[in-house]
Design goal:
The protein has about 240 residues and is mainly beta. Helices cover about 10% and strands about 35% of the residues.
């Protein structure tokens, strides 16, 4: 795969289809060791040896399907809702296998609606979820200073990344690219900015080439929030072929 702005964006969209199992360490003040087994299982052990296990189940997901009709029409039947994991739905791929377009919820045949359950189990907050599936970096971002490199012995793609209008974080309160734009996403446009709140100019980001996850994140410039990341991948299990 050749590193370009487009391929960096595509890699950021690709995590759900690039691996099934992941064992890694997150270094830093609150260091942890974690095992992710897709779909939906997470085990985390903190620096004191305390284990946390989280599991997402399709049957636990909530959702509502709305139907509408005009006066005088026969009300339509309520659609049947089916939930699927991302790896069960094929994305639009580029020639190199990276994801050009991720699938959204869709109608499958008459009377059936398919909802795709993105997101690995959360640990502490949604920053963790976005780290493992950084699709928010793929669109409405400025990406410059691209280079291929290594991080803790593994090939990575590095870039300077900055959110622009339309940036859509997994969760506004825990955005990978914490910024004035992400704050507005969380609190709406008329939320008064705190003058003591200093956002970074941009972020130094490294994506692991094999998995597509964020293994390094560093604010560039002064920042009143410390949302940096430093991951060491120990083992990766790919999805079974076919």
């Amino acid at each position: 795969m050749e590193l370009t702005e487009d391929s960096f964006r595509a890699l950021a969209r690709s995590s759900p289809w690039r691996w099934q199992g992941l064992h890694f360490r997150r270094h830093g003040e609150d260091s942890v060791e974690a095992w992710v087994n897709r779909p939906g299982v997470l085990r985390v052990v903190d620096s004191r040896g305390r284990a946390t296990v989280e599991q997402n189940r399709l049957e636990d997901s909530a959702g509502v399907i709305g139907v509408s009709w005009t006066e005088g029409e026969v009300p339509p039947s309520k659609p049947r809702l089916i939930r699927r994991w991302p790896h069960e739905v094929e994305p639009v791929r580029r020639a190199d296998g990276l994801v050009a377009e991720r699938p959204d919820d869709f109608e499958e045949g008459e009377g059936t609606f398919v909802a795709i359950e993105y997101g690995d189990p959360m640990y502490v907050n949604y920053h963790w979820v976005a780290m493992l599936d950084p699709r928010e970096l793929g669109d409405h971002t400025s990406i410059t200073d691209l280079r291929a490199d290594e991080h803790r012995g593994r090939p990575v793609w590095r870039a300077r990344v900055k959110p622009v209008e339309g940036y859509d974080p997994t969760c506004g309160c825990c955005a990978l690219l914490w910024s004035e734009i992400s704050d507005r996403d969380e609190y709406d446009d008329d939320w008064p900015l705190d003058p003591n709140r200093v956002h970074p100019e941009a972020y130094a980001v490294a994506l692991d080439v094999e998995t597509g996850i964020v293994v390094h994140l560093e604010p560039i410039g002064e920042s009143t929030e410390d949302n940096r990341l430093d991951l060491e991948i120990i083992d990766v299990t790919p999805w079974p072929a076919g």
